[in-house]
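Q: What residues go here?
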């Protein structure tokens, strides 16, 4: 028994020594894991909650579009980008609201929505669409420097043909037919996998004479 008691005492002393040396690190590790788990759970709940709220708002937004309630369309889009900017619904609404604003000739609101989408959307395609539509507004307004800057920015390669088409449109508006022709020809090549875009560009080339 004395032998067993001695062994037990040695194990106890060993545990005490180990705990004295490593105890604080173990406690810290456990706390980090617990806090991380709680943080992850809260983040998932937070994201789910925001996505659900955004879905409800976007449903109201699409209803306003179908009812042609332009005032509500703009107001709901603003609410989405101001309160739930990190959701996928916000840039979707902003793009559509920009079109409604253009139809109303409210170019200030349209520009705001498109700039926001270009700068905040996580989707490269949506960024590219926003840049193209914004460039079109600037071309119509004669703001060629701003349009040119947008049309030179990085974009989704699938939109190459459309970007060169827009450059051609810009040069036409500037009265530079030669540069427009070059841009359209480049657009034809870039839009090799997009027959509909090629058809439109070819029509423009035919009009100015290729």
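A:
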């Amino acid at each position: 028994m004395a032998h067993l008691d001695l062994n037990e005492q040695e194990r106890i002393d060993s545990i005490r020594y180990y705990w004295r040396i490593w105890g604080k690190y173990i406690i810290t590790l456990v706390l980090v894991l617990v806090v991380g788990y709680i943080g992850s759970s809260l983040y998932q709940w937070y994201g789910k909650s925001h996505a659900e709220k955004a879905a409800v708002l976007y449903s109201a937004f699409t209803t306003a579009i179908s009812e042609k309630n332009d005032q509500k369309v703009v107001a709901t889009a603003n609410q989405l980008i101001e309160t739930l900017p990190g959701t996928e619904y916000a840039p979707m609404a902003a793009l559509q609201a920009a079109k409604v604003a253009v139809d109303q000739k409210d170019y200030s609101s349209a520009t705001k929505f498109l700039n926001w989408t270009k700068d905040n959307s996580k989707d490269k395609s949506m960024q590219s669409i926003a840049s193209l539509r914004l460039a079109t507004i600037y071309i119509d307004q004669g703001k060629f420097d701003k349009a040119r800057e947008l049309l030179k920015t990085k974009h989704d390669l699938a939109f190459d043909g459309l970007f060169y088409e827009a450059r051609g449109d810009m040069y036409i508006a500037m009265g530079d037919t030669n540069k427009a022709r070059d841009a359209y020809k480049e657009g034809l090549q870039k839009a090799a996998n997009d027959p509909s875009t090629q058809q439109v560009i070819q029509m423009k080339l035919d009009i100015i004479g290729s």
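A: Context that may help when evaluating the design: The chain has a mean pLDDT of 84. Residues 2-66 form the longest helix (65 residues).
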